[in-house]
Batch of 2 targets.
Target 1
Amino acid sequence: MQDWMKLAGIRSSDITDEAVFRQRRTLLQAAAAAGMTGAIATDSFAMTEKLSMDVAETQYKAEGEITSEETATSYNNFYELGTDKGDPLKNAKFLKTDPWSVTVDGECDAPGTFTLEDILKPHAIEERVYRLRCVEAWSMVIPWNGFPLADLLKRFKPNSKAKYVAFETVSSQKLPGMRSRVLDWPYREGLRIDEAMHPLSFMAIGMYGNVIPNQNGAPMRLVLPWKYGFKSIKSIVKISFTEEQPQTSWNMSAPHEYGFFSNVNPNVSHPRWSQAKERKLVGDAGGLSALFASKTETAYLNGYAEEVGNLYADMDLKKFF
Amino acid sequence: MATSAADTNRLTSSKSKFSSWTWVSWLKVLVFVLSLLPAASIVHAVVTGVSGPNPIEFITHSTGEWGLRFLLLGLVLSPMRWSFKSVTPIKFRRMIGLFAFFYVVAHFATYLVLDQQLDLAAVAEDIFKRTYIIAGFVSLVVLVPLAITSTKGMQRRLGRRWLSLHKLVYVASIAAVLHYVWLAKGDQIEPLVYAAVLVVLLGMRVVRKFKKR
């Protein structure tokens, strides 16, 4: 049941193959054309690897239509695998997730290097349907499978100096997108400790009940639904507890455009585009109908203000964007 | 010498005049059809869904990129003329320029109608506040008079001034490249490749000017 190495091994041979993906797409379209319902579509997605453990339901269920699994796994920003939205799927096979280990260091009493199996063993897996808002003004609604980030971080016993948590994406593998210096590798992200320990902060190892595909950040990634998508760092290999605010990749690349916090906020424009509205990529988002779908108003903290609003109560959000 | 516009007229007026078609006329038909292929493939990708879950972004990016490619292609023709010592490349300048205009207008229309959904307040905010949009808009605006005065008649009427006016294509190209460089996220390589090509093409003109003196 919890043979994670094996799980990761099986996965690398399935969804990453584009021919298989296209074939599945055709199957899906055929099923849709024939007026068949969910059961068939689920069948043709059987090539993705089902999570081997039970997934508990939770109260975290974003309302509204859910983005199709095909859309969420074929339209990605994962610059290590290329800068076009279709590149991460195309290049997914280059990311090797078996074996995988995560190094934990910094201001904590139980640091170390852990295998993926060690990391995941104690956690019960739950499902959370979260809204995802990209800084590029599109959004999705995705059912993630994983566990609260706080539950993981507490195991490393952060000490009183641990004011922040920093994360790094894998950079030891020669991934195709890393040939270009589009960002300063490795990809880095960070959170204030109270943000990281907040119950909304989630570590995902699956989506749609399936093992998370490489292009979505296998084998484990953050999901922070009130922040712009780039904060939800993928394919994590390093977790560091720090006293100082850590460097984050997009902030390093363009400090006046991407702040450390990067909370979804329709009132603070990105310098190059408005954040007031978003294009929802939900349901069957491709094709002609998507051309004329209207945009939706973006909500403060992506609609999670009730949960996380108090984290930023006395901050000037135009300054700390 | 048979001129291109006259050739085209003959095509519609009388079949018997086909015999007077030069290889340049046939090449023009070929270039015309080839220039329409990107538009056809964009439409095809959107209709079949191959363009992915965000077709508006796909159309915006691909029309913009083709607009820029045609602008730069138009700037290749004069250097070709100098190196081949033949005016033939110049005979394609109007068509290439108008295709650049076609893709740039399609790009702007996509932004205006599909992306911003005619929200004129949002568009105005973009055009006044955002440097890369200003650059793109300048490129579009500058190309309008060039497209309008691209006819043989206007060329004749404007005489010497026509050449000076059409030097604005340099402004349009520089603005278009800046638009792309400034909008890219991170340090992407593609916009810089276009910038490098433009620098070379404009540089060739500067060098030639100095040599002539």
Target 2
Amino acid sequence: MGKEANEINTSTRVEYVPRVGELEGWCSGCRICETICSMYNEGISNPKISRIKIISWEPSIDVPIVCKQCVEPLCAKSCPVEAFKKNDNGILEVDQELCIGCGACVESCPFGAITVNPITGKMSKCNLCGGQPLCIEYCPADVIKLMTSKLRETEKAEEWAKVLQKQKEIAGKKAKEQCAGGE
Amino acid sequence: MAKHGYGGKILRIDLTEQKATIDCLPSEYYEMYLGGRGFNSRLLFDMAGPQTDPLSPEAPLIFAPGALHGTPVPTASRTTATIKNVLSGGHGDSHGGGFIGSEIKYAGYDVVIITGKAEKPVWLMINDEKVDFCDASDLWGKKTKETQEAIRKKLPSKKVQIACIGPAGENLVKYAVITDGVATFGRTGVGAVMGSKNLKALVVYGTGGITIHDPSRLLKAIKEYNNIVKQDPYLIPAVTFGSTRFMWHRVKYGVHGACNWRLGEFDWEGLSPEIFREKHAVKATSCPMCPVRCRRDMMIREGEHKGEYTKVEWESIARSMTMGITDSIDLIRVIGAFNEMGLDIESAGDTIAFAMECFEKGILTKEDFDGLSPAFGDAELILKIIKMITYRQGIGNLLADGCYRASLAIGKGSEKYAMHIKGVEVTAADPRGMPVRAVSYATSTRGSDHLRSNPYVEEMATPEEAELMFGSREAADLKGVAGKGRMLKWSEDLVTIGDLLGLCKWAFYRSATMEYLCDKGLRLAAEFYSAVTGREMTGEELMLAAERVYNIEKAFNVRTGFRKKDDTIPERFFTEPIKGGPGDGNIVERNKFNTILEEYYEARGWDPSTGLQTRAKLEQLGLSEIKNVLEKDQREKNTIMLV
Amino acid sequence: MKIIVRILPPVINDQNEFVVELAEGSSVSDLIDKTTQLLGDKKNVLVNEEKKLMPAWRVFLNDRLLDSSNYFKTSLVQGDTVVFLLALAGG
């Protein structure tokens, strides 16, 4: 992981990064992240109030969903009572005193990453546990990472560059063959 | 009564009256039995007796999540479903590693007790304190997956957990299962009990949470556990191969139990761990909270049945070999059918193998099978028999009662092909050549079972460790006798801890060395319990609680009539040698079996000559109430039940 | 002489079958030492801290299960196959 990923800034987030070619490289659906998140942040263990959530369907598909820590957070913009406030680390959190549980943020978040507490009806979102998210630390499959968009940008660009290079090589080879055939 | 780690309440549901009552357990139950199987075994003892018909309305169906289930403790995923054993008539329970148990706890309950019988099929919706009895007439007849899907469609929240039965449970097949979509409560006929109550599904949604006494201590212990997982060679291949990895062991020892427990040599290459990994495994999946991830959905990727998939665990493969299946695609189809119908693969596999051998021997004929000629390994035929069993058609009606009862009905010498202990079909590996494994199947309190104990300790211990712990170096030798009874007692108590706390018997109670095993199974288990509940416990105290629970189950079995003569294994293992393979010619030697059995009784503090419990032992364990019940029975029935 | 070694289940991802070169007259104990060396930092899955083979590893010489007290005495010959099998009993 690059240095910038460890610095807390508004674009650092918990990201699902499966190792696509491996059977063991996917979220296994164990829910350790959910129970640890709820225990650490809410004081009780129950996946329903975890800020990271695993969405599952058959056969054997499990995908972790968690706040993207957007630079222009739609959740905060939609909040009528301005309950979204930056904490000391610069991470947006929901002030439980101010939150009225209207659900505007749930509607506006494109990723379904806001968590609704089923008892209080109020909202919460990932605050990166003060910089070292416990979900990452305890993930047995090692598939959730602390990421910045900048780092992902480079990774994705590198992946695509390799594909592009291969395409160009194939195209070049084809062109050459055609030239040879034309003679 | 808020207790760290627990839900605190219990829920009693009467299906006849359609009434739910919220209640509390006596606080000494928490102290003495910890949770899960511990609560259940005591409650069953309190609620059912020798006269209770397991499928009658008054017989209870009890669910209890393990004490640590619902918390982040690694592998804490097990829930116990307890009944009066449909197959044996004695103590019965089954354990599942899914999400239904944690949801029960989030709803606030440590135990859910279901009694009575609904007039028409119902499903239950438990939403915290609210319990609804919903009409299940549209669900009745549906297979397990269809049932799950249909219920989910009815409900606004996707986060509910559902435990349901398939058609087999509805038709009271004596080895029907309850499944929660992820895991299955497989053994002893729990699904039949649910079906007998006209209960199609139990649906739970819990909004509460479990408090943890000391989260940072818990997190530290989780790290310690995770470190062991990374180092223990026993667990490393579990991640890559899941439970399919057991095949290598079976092959090298020749203990397949193939073709109704006859052959030690088997055409296994089509079922190799590599084939399942490369051709069928979807990905590494896990039970709740488990870092080991040995669960697998297996999918057929080509051919006529492309796209079909089902869960395949080791026992599915083992019992497929008992039915003679040699091809992985056949296996996935057959196991898929068992799962869909809601049948216990272990009992059903043995029962079908029994029927096939009866046909082979001319005891059953084509006419008995509606013109079919069953043969070992014929998947199409097995699929047809599965249907006949599920819907109790033709010979299926007999086979649906298990191989023991079927053999009694068929007669003609078929009894010797029925592989059961106390009426419950034999599981796991062939015990011939490994005497303590045979004894461990026989002493299990729920009928034949390889998970009631952990005799595999003999392969983990060094001779020095064996001498220190069990008084003889022989205890570390597969063929040894001395010390094995003590080892068996110790290992039964050890894995019972897993059922009390809800920990996995594979990931928590198997290891490559005794050091890892004791470190995890005793020290860390106690550390987890102490950190979560705030009640300081040591490994020894956990062992004591486990011993208590084992004794309650034993007492229940004694009340229902089981004696020393029933602590035995099918005659075939004593008299018929394994055919072929590395274990060719092995049998279970009767004298070794008896010596180990008596040493075991002695280690348990029971009477070695009768196998009965002693007053002194029950009192020492704080089980005077249990003792009094036995005393009373003894007086009334004029038979000896206690020494 | 050359001895074929297999480790089951494959706990060492990419190397489960290999050929070990040993001096004539070597015993199974010598083979364990040599295999341990070859495994490098992954040796901990095979041996404990005292560098002894963990009891759960069963040794098969040409498909015959060996008694752990006899490793010293059992000598190997060219072309022997030795399987280290992790005890994975149960169901």
